[in-house]
Amino acid sequence: MDLITVRETRVAHTRDDLVFAPGELPLGGGTWLFSEEQPGLTGLVDLTTLGWQPLVESDATLSIAATCTIAELARIPRREGWGAHPLFSQTANSLLASFKIWNIATVGGNICTSLPAGPMISLASALDATALVWATDGSDRRLPVADLVTASRENLLEHGEVLRAVEIPKTALEARTGFRRIALSPLGRTGTLVIARVDAGGEAVFTVTGGTTRPRVLRFDELPSQGALANAVESITEWFTDAHGAADWRRAMALLFAEELRTELGEEPAA
Known about the structure:
The chain is an alpha+beta fold.
């Protein structure tokens, strides 16, 4: 779609270029920005020219640049001990878009759009990822991605702030994981998505997205009982109804998936 209100597109080369006038927004892949009208949008600042390395590994984290494309993330090679590696392709395949869009859509854009069905929100929340945000005063701030997204199309980014990267702790990547997703049609938008994780120390984490207006992360010191898990899922109040599913159906599927994953991860891992 042509954005007929945009009067200027600027190219950013350094952090100093990331000063946004009223009506200006950052531009990553643009797959959402150019998909519908953007009232009040007068200018774009291209982030892709900043030259951020898509994926950077350290001893403690995997840092994913906000401009990393879905395709680049989905192709990351498996490392020894990365039990959570399948989640990269599983969540990428949850994106309601063709593989062509994968090569343009960015991880940061998917998170900052803050749609309930955003698969990068699901991935980052399930793996305890931290959002590195460049603030307008030149400082950095960090907060969990699960807290960054507050509601459908709403998040804690102030105007002029930029998501620089998403940092996943290696301890989460080394966990055993399980994944469940459902939609009303084979290629439809996510109705409910549940990811479960059991860390090396035994802590269990169940993340519910897709059917809720914001990510819900349920934590347990160990793999919970059936009743404890069901009670935790039933405590979620952010279910919603739209053309892609009713709230009661989303809740029922989350309960079913959570129990399936609890059983699956409670089994002895294959040798």
